[in-house]
Amino acid sequence: MQIDVAGTATQKCARLAIAIPAYGRASAIARSVAKMADQARADDLDIVFYVSDDTADSSVRDAIQPLLDVGLPVIYRQNIPALRHDRNLVATLLWPTADYVWLLGSAYTVQSAQLARAYHFLEEQDLVFVNNHFPDHAFVPLLQGEAALDCLRDRLWHQTLTGATIYGNRVRNWVARSGDALKLVSDFPQVSVMLGFASDQELKIGVFGQPTLYASGSDTPSYWRSRAVDVFVDHWSEVVYAFPTVVPPDDRARVVREHSARTQLFNTTNLIGHRLTGQFSWRSLTKRHFREAMHLPLWKLLLLLVLPVPILKAGGSMLAQIKRRIGTS
Predict the structure, then answer these.
(1) b/e code 163-183 from CB counts within 10 Å (16+ = b)
(2) Fewest beta carbons within 10 Å, which of 31, 143, 207, 280?
(3) pLDDT (mean) for 164-188
(4) Rg of the Cα trace of the chain?
(5) What's the rounded Cα separation, in Å, for the pair 124 and 168?
(6) What is the pLDDT of residues 99-128, one digit of tens each?
(7) Of 122 and 317, the one with more pLDDT
(8) Contact 236, 185 (CB under 8 A)
(9) What local confidence, expressed as pLDDT, does residue 137 receive?
(10) Rounded to an integer, what is the distance from CA 65 to the centroid of its chain?
């Protein structure tokens, strides 16, 4: 694998690295890094930024170059050939030299007002769960033992978001030691890391309860939305089932269903869209964990499959208008 490394920042051991696995979204990444770097400098925070770029062209490199030219603490590399999503995410997690690594998806950035607060919250945790849209906003500096495992199970749906977790060095060292034995489920390498570590080691978790992430303004279509049924039925259930010492058999169905129930990924509006694109079909019902992954009742799922496409299109448009009106009222 050839790596093209650019920039003048040195890989000193920073207190915190914000590490971004990139594929496209060049301007959004550059804006996000520049804003966070300016805030870190204003608050005198020891933060270095890493961008691991899987993009085939030079768009991300070109967008990042002005930040490197002015000496911001940014370290960039382009992966040739591309590592692809899962390998790039794990490689990006392991790359920085830092006490903690905040693995941040390229579609998100950190609210300026929360960056210093999150930075100073770090204290001996293996994982810090950073809130994006979890309803409980409580701050919990440290959970251990069964309390940490309960927290991991309850928030696992939320931690699927790349950006909602900061990793301590015990976790990263464990991943590096695991090597080829590391169990990674497709599309969910970060969840695999959390569950794998918790299966093998005593876990210490901190919960940073204030909503802290926001979308960085990219207009790139979501990979997850385009493959939602395959990803969040097949692969999501697979990762939940893969670590029985953390998620026991009698709790698996609840944990799997929690993602759809909490995020509304498979609500009526979205399932209409998935039906129109062919993702949601009669064949979906044959998936082993389909019913577990759906929070809607079976009669509604069947109705959405039976109704003719023109009626579904009209119904989808009507629901979208209602949501827009509610949102602006």
Answers:
(1) bbbbbbebbbebbeeeeeeee
(2) 31
(3) 97
(4) 20
(5) 8
(6) 999 999 999 999 999 999 999 999 999 999
(7) 122
(8) no
(9) 96
(10) 26
Task: Give the single-character DSSP code of 158.
Answer: G
pLDDT at 2 over 50: no
Q: What's the confidence (pLDDT) of residue 226?
A: 76
**Closest by CA position to 109, among listed 225, 192, 27, 169:** 27
Given a contact cutoff of 8 angstroms between Cβ atoms, the answer to whether 54 and 22 are in contact is yes
Dist CA 53 CA 26 (whole Å): 10
141-156 CB burial, b ≥16 within 10 A, e <16: eebeeeebbebbbebb
CA distance 74 to 45: 14
Phi, psi of 99 (to 5 degrees): -70, -35
The first and second tokens of residue 284, run together, are: 């979906």
Residue 208 backbone class (left: φ over 0; alpha: ψ -120 to 50; beta: rest)? beta
Portion of the chain with pLDDT greater than 70, in percent: 90
Written as six digits, the tokens of 56 are 């085939």
Q: What is the pLDDT of residue 105?
A: 96
Which residue's entry shows tokens 């392991």? Answer: 94
Angle between helices 26-42 and 112-121 (to 10 degrees): 60
Going along 71-203, which residue ranges are E strands? Answer: 74-80, 98-103, 108-110, 127-130, 140-144, 165-168
218: pLDDT confidence band, cut at 50, 70 and 90?
Answer: low
